[in-house]
Amino acid sequence: MNTPLLMIEDDHRLAQMVAEYLGHNGLAVLHCADGASGLAQLQGERLPALVLLDLMLPDMDGLEICRRIRALPGAAAQVPVLMLTAKGDPMDRIIGLELGADDYLPKPFEPRELLARIRALLRRSARAPATPGGSERLRFGQLEIDRDARSVTVAGQAAELTSYQFDLLVTLAASAGRVLTREQIMEAVRGRELEAFDRSIDVHMGRIRAAIEADPKSPKRILTVRGVGYVFAKQQD
Asked: Are 101 and 82 a contacting pair, CB within 8 Å?
């Protein structure tokens, strides 16, 4: 059965090419040429499995659309978002990740890479990553991570994370006390090695800290090991 995806893209020729290619690989694509109609699709009963979001649209900026998606109620806010960005615009990518996008792909892109990114995001949104330990809940002081429900609470209050950010947090928490390099973290959650100068991992870590730390500027849970990567503290309040 085809998995419905939503593509918000004003380039009709590109959208048609992508839809045909993904269709041959078992993925159905619903195309919307502007942000308003795309957002409307996310407020219906049947949600898409993933959103392919162009940043340059006729009616509103793609970054604003990403922000609005993450502000939607219920499951709609958790739909994975893959941004399609103009090549040479790293700031747009960083801002998009900060607003809650799960991944990005610069234009022009290889269809096979697009398919690989989509499949990776769909795998992560369908299930929690395999991690050591028998319990589906990880507890560290007032922080609780429910891998089965894919939810995070701090002192009983829900912490809002994207699917990708949740997987990053689980990867770190399941190896609490162990320093993980950026390459190890990205390989665990994305299934590929970190690209040179790819700092998206740091942007996501900043978003996770904002959600779970009392003071994100002075984190106690996710610590940076300069020149290496990150470590999740075992002992927490």
From this structure: yes
What's the pLDDT tens digit per position in 127-158?
A: 544 444 445 789 898 999 998 888 899 999 99
* DSSP class per residue in 24-91: TTTEEEEEESSHHHHHHHTTSSS--S-EEEES--SSS-HHHHHHHHHTSSGGGGGS-EEEEEETT-HH
Domains and CATH numbers, the chain: 3-126 (3.40.50.2300), 137-232 (1.10.10.10)
The CB density around residue 83, as the number of other CB atoms within 10 Å, is 25
The DSSP bridge pattern shows strands 81-86 and 103-107 to be parallel
The Cα–Cα gap between 120 and 148 comes to 19
Q: Please report which helix (H) or strand (E) contains residue 164, including its range.
A: helix 163-173
The pLDDT tens digits of the residues spanning 92-130 come to 777 888 788 888 888 889 999 999 999 988 887 765 444
Alpha-carbon distance 228 to 26, whole Å? 39
CA-to-CA distance for 218 and 193, rounded, in angstroms?
A: 29
